[in-house]
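Hi L., both proteins are below.
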Amino acid sequence: MLHAPEGSRKLMQLMPAVPIGLSRSGQIGLLFEDDRYLAVSKPPGLLVHRTAIDAHEKENLRDILRDHHSGRLDPVHRLDKPTSGVILFGKDPEAIDACKRQFEAGSTIKEYLCIVRGHVHQAGCVGKPLPKGMEGPPRKARTSFNPLGRCELPYAVSRYPTARLSLLECTPHTGRYHQIRLHMRHFRHPVIGDSQHGDKPQNRAFEAHTGAAGLLLHARRFAFVHPDGALVDLLAGLPEKWGAIDQATGWNLEPFRNEGKMPDLREIRT
């Protein structure tokens, strides 16, 4: 649970993201900046920073942001390359540590949107232990989910005559490698477009029907308490690749395209 000191101010992002850079994967939008932090909306397909595994990649978010801020920029949380949405950078060691302590205490708010295989009818939680990184012993891991919509699309997948899908809001309460993706696979509702942990026939059929390619997982919201005591609440609008999904599914995703405004979930369902 997120708690700011009593009487503290709230630094909620009220304006749409301001274009701050351009990558081959899409536009980068500035969500928030002060002398301690910088938060942006990352397009899908862009690395957050250089890694040995993706050494062949020619660009990454942190290097692109150097044109905007030449000082220290260290990400304070994970966001996979194919995942879009809010990513927060710290500008000094104290700011970075302050945010990481909140992560460890489970006092930040992280909310994701994803489209999964199958119909999910009620809210729940997956608690399968997962490694902290790519390898290592399993540790406590927990992801809550809430269904926002369901649909059935008129095309065959494998032995099934139609494709059933659900729109979920997911909240990871721990920070494990590929946590939401692995938990949804364990729940037997893998994320659409997940080439590593998902249902490949379903992924191919969905892309052919809608034109939406890649992982359909978006980091919609991130909230934390600033070292000065203010509550910072950030929202990132859906990327362009989700544009054709409304018409195909019958869901109203327009409220999730607006930065700085929490959607009324009654507007999403049809």
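That was the first. Here is the second:
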Amino acid sequence: MRHSPRLTIRALRAAALAVLLLVVPVQAQAPKDIVDVAVGAGSFKTLVAAVQAAGLVEVLKRPGPLTVLAPTDDAFAKIPKADLDALMKDKAKLSAVLQYHVLTGNVAAADLKMMKDFGTAQGQRIQISSAGGSLKINNATVVKPDVPASNGVIHVIDTVLLPK
């Protein structure tokens, strides 16, 4: 039984392609850092704008690990517009507010539930309580815990935390 040269060449090409697919690993998409996860979610436009205005993008892109208590756009909407506009223009105050939302380390919601308070990157401590499956940070409720990022974890909250 004779094989045509075309069939043999096709078979060789197919075999070579199969070997390449097995030998050369497919590059996995790199996991997104905290900033990229927030940008990609689409519900943190105000938070991302605040992080940019405060000059904290590179801080939140570092290897970490970090835990970010991330207020949604709806959370920022609870702040009167004039107050939010003033905050966005005051880089020092904005930076302090944002750093109050950052914890050092990868702190899972389950770990937070076992604590009464935790120190923030801003220097003050947040108060933590849990009851009936709900996790509260000061007066904010965690609405989506444990959103993974390459450099830590995000807990989505429904209220902007303001340091004292």
